[in-house]
Structure formats: C-alpha cells, structure tokens
Amino acid sequence: MNRRTFISTTGAAVAGSLMTSQMQAGVAAITLEQAPLAYPPEALEPHIDAMTMNIHYGKHHASYIANLSKALEAAKIETSNVAELITDLSKVPADAMVAIRNNGGGHVNHTWFWQWMAPAGSGPTGPEGKLGADIQSTFGSVDDFKKLFAEAGGKRFGSGWAWLIVKPDGKLAVTSTPNQDNPLMKGVVADSDLGTPILGLDVWEHAYYLKYQNKRPDYIGAWWNVVNWDAVAKGYTAAKA
Ligand code: MN3
Fold it and tell me: How many angstroms separate the alpha carbon of residue 154 from the centre of ligand 1?
C-alpha cells in the first residue's frame, strides 16, 4: 500500500467510524488488526533506524495487540473500535481495566504514530494551510510550537507521549501523558488534557534507545524530519468537522 492509498483509506475510516461523543469527533475506528506500515521500516532512516522500526512495530506494538486481545477475551468484551473503547474505561470490568488501559492505549497510540510519520522529503516539511495558520496563532510560531512540544516530550519522566490535540472547544493544545495513556481517556487523563490527538510522539526508550541511547532531545529533534504533515492536517480537518 503506498502512502496515498494509505491516507485515503484512513480518510474512509474516519468517515465510517461511529461518532459517540464530541470527544470522538474525527477519530477513525481502530480494530484489533495491526494495519501494515505505509512505508518500509528503513524508509525513515537516518532519523529513525530500521532496527528500531522493526522491533517497535513488529514486537512492541504487536505485543500490545496480543495482550489486549487476551484481556478482552478474558473480560468477554467484543469491540470493533478500540479507540472508542478506551475513551471510557469506567465501563470495563475493574479487574480488566489496567490491562485494557495499557494495551488498548498502546495499540491505539502506535496505530496513530506510524501514520504520523513518513519518509523525509515525501511531503510538506511543516504545517501548512489552516493547520499552519492556527498553530501560529495559538503558539506564536511553528518554532514556538515545536519547542513546547519537545519540552512536553523531554520533561515526561520515564515513559509516555507528547501530544498536539484539538480540545473540545476546538482550540489546539500541547500536552503529555504517562505510559500508554492518551488524550481520549476520560477519567484517566485530567479533563484539561482531554481532546482529539492529531500528532503524538512516543518518548518511551524503546522508540529511540538503539540509535540515540540516553539522548531523548536528539531523537525528538530528528523526528521532526519524518512528521507526516499531510496526515496531521487531515486529522485536524476531521477533528474540527
Ligand atoms: Mn512505543
């Protein structure tokens, strides 16, 4: 599947997803299948190395799906949309909650993460159009946004994610969550940090350690080269619709 096909498929999924709340606006359904990468694992070199991609996609992400499937089976939960399931974990049985939170978040976050990256030079090098204008008016400039986002990822102690979200009032915000939590998770994430993620960065060591070791800021700096701004813009449009 080439990148164009991949993005239009994602768009169709957005249109066909079940919108259950304002929070879910623009969030495509995510099943228990692992979607194929839209690019070869070496395509993000030198910024993200092929071995990291192979282990991250093939082992870490795959494990979240396997463990989520087990947890759902044990709890007798059937879902065709994990992204929706994790928005309200108060609805899942208490003894399954931790496993579904961690592995459901892990599956959803990584499904998005692969889509938010693309080979360097294959698309816009920064936010354009309405997204670019709104990032500038919200954060002062694109560089100010990047600085804030990099700080959110850099300061996250231990493992977690940095996010660019569209809040329920339509405004852009930068936030961060620990572990595999994400901004869709009501009751888990502070209400002020809830929103629709349109860009996120994995700052778990498994995302960068082979190439960058302890130098997380270097990983974050290099990662901007492989951000798929077309996909971010599409997500922004969907979240605002
Ligand atoms: Mn990861």
Answer: 15
